[in-house]
Amino acid sequence: MADHIVKAREVHLIRRPDGSLRATDFSIREVALPPLANGQFLIRNRYLAIDPVRRVFFTNGTAPLNAGLHSLTLGEVVASRHADFRVGDTVSHYLGLRDLAVSDGAEARRIETDGEPLHWHADALGMGGFFAYIGLIEVARARPGETVFVSSAAGSVGSVATQLARLIGCRVITSAGSEAKRAWLDIVAGADAAINYRAEPLRDALAHAAPEGIDVYFDNVGGDHLDAALERINPHGRVAICGMVSAYDRTNPFADRAGAWTWRMMTGQIAIRSYNARDHMHLWPAFQRAVGRWLKEGAIRTQPHLLQGLNAVPLAFVDLLAGSAMGKTLIEL
Questions:
Q1: Which residues, at least 6 apart from 165, have a Cβ–Cβ distance to it below 8 Å?
Q2: Which of 99, 97, 77 is nearest to 87 (CA)?
Q3: Tens of pLDDT along 17-36?
Q4: Cα 258–Cα 281–Cα 293 angle in degrees, nearest 5
Q5: Does pLDDT of 2 surpass 80?
Q6: 70-116 per-position pLDDT tens digit
Q7: At what angle do helices 202-209 and 223-232 cross, to 10 degrees?
Q8: Which residues on neighbouring strands pair with residue 172, listed in sequence order?
Q9: Rg, the chain, Cα only
Q10: Cα separation of 28 and 98, whole Å?
């Protein structure tokens, strides 16, 4: 495969979303990949991560039109002219939303598995799980006996944050947008209280669940969730800003003041406290050991939303942003 031109299929954004994202904003295109140059290797992708934050880049111009898009991806090296990556290696990289990718090794990481499902490394053992681990333990510094509130708690990051808080010894309150998600948080994730914010007023439900206030808020949502949490937060409370999914699927996610300053905090690492997991990569080995062990022991459970084939990508983004998917959305190729 390294000695002749091969064809790859990749997802392209063909129009800037006007309002809510639609599947017709995307197209699947075929492109030619030239022979590998020295220092490059070819990856056959196996699992593509669908993350809601990518929606912002579709609008603001960071993601180009009529060109391949990127996502976190797991794949297998099938041809190589790179000294550090051999045929048969499994790698994590950011050249996703395509079936084949050429890499020079930048931001690629070799994955060594120990009998666990490979897709864990795009889920709880990947960057999503790492964001939960860093946000809860390093940024918010949640301690045993404290009350932790996690929003969008049935999602890929929130579900890990919920279970980590429980394992630390915290009282955990969660919110999600459907009865099925609320039930999963209650029965499987072990939340002490689970709120379906579409079925009851969030402020009232949070006040009922946390009459003595909250000590830590792990924020995946922004907007009204952040407002409600700040009303209930105790003195010396901590807020870890991980995401703002309430605003992603808009033409201008920062049109209102709350969206603008939440995004500014996320990208600028400004307290209340936002963070970028890449600033904490020295903790990756500790995260892998701890979360890997808890996954194998069943102390942390995942429920990936697994779809098949590259053609599933456009609707996967739409469904994820609409809140209909539970857990990590992954495309298996």
A1: 136, 142, 148, 150, 172, 216, 218
A2: 77
A3: 888 889 999 999 999 998 99
A4: 105
A5: no
A6: 899 999 999 999 999 999 999 999 998 999 999 999 889 999 888 89
A7: 30
A8: 148
A9: 20
A10: 9
pLDDT at 165: 97
The CA distance from 266 to 219, in Å, is 11
Give Cα 147 to chain centroid, integer Å: 24
Q: Is 173 helix (H, G, I), strand (E, B) or coil?
A: strand
Q: What are the phi and psi torsion angles at 272 (to 5°)?
A: -65, -80
pLDDT > 70: percent of the chain: 89
- Given this model, what pLDDT does residue 251 score? 62
**Count of alpha carbons within 13 Å of 31, Cβ hemisphere only?**
19
Q: Is 71 exposed, middle or buried (0-12, 13-18, 19+ CB in 10 A)?
A: buried
Query: Distance (Å, rounded) from C-alpha 43 to C-alpha 91?
Result: 8
**Residue environment code for 260-285, b if the CB has 16+ CB neighbours within 10 A, otherwise e:** ebbbebbeeeeebebbebeebeebbe
**38-42, 207-211, 250-254, 287-291: which has the minimum mean pLDDT?**
250-254
DSSP 276: -
Instruction: Name the token pair of 194.
Output: 């689970």
The number of angstroms, rounded, from the C-alpha of 71 to the middle of its chain's C-alpha atoms is 10
* Torsion sign over Cα 311, 316, 317, 322: positive
Pairwise CA distance, residues 285 & 281, whole Å? 8
Full-model pTM: 0.85
**Residue where the block lists tokens 């890990």:** 160
Residue 265 phi/psi, 5-degree rounding, is -65, -40
Both structure tokens of 315: 């609707």
Query: Of 227, 196, 231, nearest to 213 (Cα)?
Result: 231
Say which residue the tokens 């995401």 belong to.
243
Q: Where are the alpha helices (DSSP H) in 188-312?
A: 202-209, 223-232, 245-248, 257-268, 284-297
Half-sphere exposure in the Cβ direction for 310 (13 Å, CA)? 22
What is the DSSP pairing of strand 41-50 with strand 100-103?
antiparallel
